[in-house]
Structures are given as C-alpha cells and as structure tokens.
Specification:
Strand order of the largest sheet: 1-10-7-4-2-3
Strand content: 15-25%
CATH architecture: 3-Layer(aba) Sandwich
Largest sheet: 6 strands, parallel
CATH topology: Rossmann fold
CATH class: Alpha Beta
Helix content: 25-40%
Order of helices and strands: HEHEHHEHEEEHEEHHEE
Bound molecules: iron/sulfur cluster
Shape: globular
Radius of gyration: 16 Å
Number of domains: 1
Number of helices: 8
Structural class: alpha/beta
Number of strands: 10
Length: 213
C-alpha cells in the first residue's frame, strides 16, 4: 500500500472505532492482520472452545492455526473434510463457545455491523451465547451507511461467497446479486447490529488493510 492508502485506512478505521464505541462495542484499530492476530491470541487459553464464523478474513490472517497452536479447541464448520452432520454439530457448538471469532460483511461509519447469512449460525452467535466475541474487519469492509452496506453485500460479498462455495446461483455468472428465489439461495438472514447486544462481551478489531470479502 502507498503512504496515502495507509493514511486513509487509518483515518477511516479510527473513525469507525470511535463510532463503534459510541454504540457500546469495544473497538481497537490495528494497522495489519498480524497485529490483529496478536490481539486475538491474547484472549486464547489452552482448552477453551473457540468458534469460527466461516470467515475468509480469519483464514487470511492464520487465526485457526494460531488458536490451535495455543492449545484451544477449534470449532470450525468450514474446515476441509467435515461431513454435513458434523458441520451442523459444530455450528450448534459455536453458539455456546468460550470465544467466537468472526468477520463481518460490512461496518458503517456510524458504527453499525451488517451481515447476511444462509443458515444464520454466525449471526445467532454474534447476538447471544459465546462468552466473548471478537469481530475482525479489514479496511475493505468499511462503508458509509446501511445503504452502502447492502450494496457491498450484493456486489461483492455475496457473489464471492457463492463462488467460493460453488453454489449454482445467478450471481456467480453475473458477479452481482440477481435476487434469486431458488432453494440454493445463500442470502437468507439479514442482520444489523446497531448497538452491542445486551449481555455480550464484544470487541471489534478494525484493520488498516483489506482482508477477506
Ligand atoms: S440473493 Fe441469490 S443471486 Fe443474490 S447474492 Fe444471494 S445467492 Fe446470489
């Protein structure tokens, strides 16, 4: 990244953190994914159960490997070689884990966190259940408002997730959402966290470089 890009990501990221704090979240700006991983590592203890919300961001920074190396049990339904029954079991276990790690589809300059899920296990865990929640968002997830969040989901996040998951939905051909109506549609549960959910212990790490999609 150029110096100007670094500056812009930092200014926007700091602003988002201030807005998130106003909305009751704990928020921390870090410049890189490596720093985000160090921050997460500070919460991981041997033997604890750590759930993952199907996040490309966390995979990009090596979070599952790090958590495992620190002696925690990883609950990741997206890991390779897991059958459908086990995936469902892991999704349920994430709801009561010690630490839930996720990214988000978009975070607004007003400090709102926006997500779209297929099954809804990620948004459920982000709302209630885990003892501690950490959401990591790269600079590419920052948007002005809820309208832009929806645009981002429809033009970037959802089509790319469809492609990653090899779903036969029209966004894979078009590259943008076509509001499909079939059984394979993955966009089913829409969530906006306007404020920190009651009873949650919720930290957002805003990273000054693009991560995930
Ligand atoms: S609603 Fe359908 S077409 Fe739109 S992004 Fe989701 S799966 Fe793709």
């Amino acid at each position: 990244m150029t110096a100007v890009e670094v500056w812009h990501n930092e200014v926007l990221g700091m602003g988002v953190c201030a807005a998130l704090r106003k909305n009751g979240f704990e928020a921390q700006y870090v410049a890189t994914g490596v720093e985000a991983l160090d921050f997460i590592a500070g919460f991981v203890k041997p033997g604890m159960k750590v759930g993952f919300g199907g996040s490309m961001t966390l995979k990009a920074i090596g979070a599952p490997e790090k958590v495992r190396a620190l002696g925690a049990e990883v609950l990741d339904h997206d890991a390779p070689g897991i059958d459908q029954e086990k995936k469902l079991e892991l999704r349920r276990a994430q709801l009561t884990c010690d630490l839930f790690l996720s990214s988000s589809n978009a975070v607004t300059l007003e400090g709102e966190i926006v997500n779209v899920d297929g099954a809804g296990n990620r948004v459920a865990a982000l709302t209630f259940g885990p003892k501690k929640t950490i959401v990591v968002v790269g600079s590419n997830k920052i948007v002005r408002d809820l309208d832009e969040a929806r645009d981002r989901i429809e033009t970037t996040a959802s089509p790319m997730n469809n492609k990653r998951l090899d779903r036969p939905n029209p966004c894979v051909k078009a590259g943008t959402c076509q509001d499909c109506q079939g059984a394979t549609r993955i966009c089913r549960v829409y969530q906006v966290l306007y404020r920190r959910p009651l009873f949650s212990n919720f930290t957002v790490i805003v990273v000054g470089e693009p991560l995930g999609y």
